[in-house]
Amino acid sequence: MEKDQKETVQVQEDVTYEQSNDSEVEVNEMQPSEGNLSTEKEELAAANEKIAELEGKLQEMEHRYLRLHADFDNFRRRTRLEFEAAEKYRAQSLVMDLLPALDNFERALKIEVEDEKAKSILQGMEMVYRALLEALKKEGVEAIESVGKPFDPHLHQAVMQVEDSNYEPNTVVEEFQKGYKLKDRVIRPAMVKVSQ
């Protein structure tokens, strides 16, 4: 029986010894060699460079996206404003074409006539003239007031200057051709004579 115990003890010692040898091997395998360590450092440095490069590209793309977004917002706002202006001043080309006809009506209405037939024709012309003015007024066209008003280069075009004691300096004395505004835009300045 003592012999059996000794063998058991011997067997247990062998197992223990083998286990300790295995542990040493595992510890040796976990510690990298110098060659492996430098390779891992190089790979890590390359990976960090790649990350920095990708972050730079991402930041550049974000800036590009923000610029494009701002450009698109500006384009959309500009397009909306152009559309609103086109809608607001849609009658401008028609009004510009009608202004010479209005001028001719005004000149014709200043003629003095004594014949009854001519008076009736003149009366019909005056009715057409008033109808034209009303139609233009509905579209936002209005005549620029000039005589007796201070000269404004945005509203008036001075073609003559005179010395007139009845008017203060830089005042419109006479109007040669009417000026017109479409809403808040001057489409034709008034042609005027201004006092010095």
Automatic annotation (TrEMBL):
<keyword id="KW-0963">Cytoplasm</keyword>
<dbReference type="InterPro" id="IPR013805">
    <property type="entry name" value="GrpE_CC"/>
</dbReference>
<comment type="similarity">
    <text>Belongs to the GrpE family.</text>
</comment>
<feature type="region of interest" description="Disordered">
    <location>
        <begin position="1"/>
        <end position="40"/>
    </location>
</feature>
<comment type="subunit">
    <text>Homodimer.</text>
</comment>
<dbReference type="InterPro" id="IPR009012">
    <property type="entry name" value="GrpE_head"/>
</dbReference>
<dbReference type="InterPro" id="IPR000740">
    <property type="entry name" value="GrpE"/>
</dbReference>
<comment type="function">
    <text>Participates actively in the response to hyperosmotic and heat shock by preventing the aggregation of stress-denatured proteins, in association with DnaK and GrpE. It is the nucleotide exchange factor for DnaK and may function as a thermosensor. Unfolded proteins bind initially to DnaJ; upon interaction with the DnaJ-bound protein, DnaK hydrolyzes its bound ATP, resulting in the formation of a stable complex. GrpE releases ADP from DnaK; ATP binding to DnaK triggers the release of the substrate protein, thus completing the reaction cycle.</text>
</comment>
<dbReference type="GO" id="GO:0000774">
    <property type="term" value="F:adenyl-nucleotide exchange factor activity"/>
</dbReference>
<feature type="compositionally biased region" description="Polar residues">
    <location>
        <begin position="8"/>
        <end position="20"/>
    </location>
</feature>
<dbReference type="GO" id="GO:0051087">
    <property type="term" value="F:protein-folding chaperone binding"/>
</dbReference>
<dbReference type="GO" id="GO:0051082">
    <property type="term" value="F:unfolded protein binding"/>
</dbReference>
<dbReference type="Pfam" id="PF01025">
    <property type="entry name" value="GrpE"/>
</dbReference>
<dbReference type="GO" id="GO:0005737">
    <property type="term" value="C:cytoplasm"/>
</dbReference>
<dbReference type="GO" id="GO:0042803">
    <property type="term" value="F:protein homodimerization activity"/>
</dbReference>
<keyword id="KW-0143">Chaperone</keyword>
<keyword id="KW-0346">Stress response</keyword>
<dbReference type="GO" id="GO:0006457">
    <property type="term" value="P:protein folding"/>
</dbReference>
<protein>
    <recommendedName>
        <fullName>Protein GrpE</fullName>
    </recommendedName>
</protein>
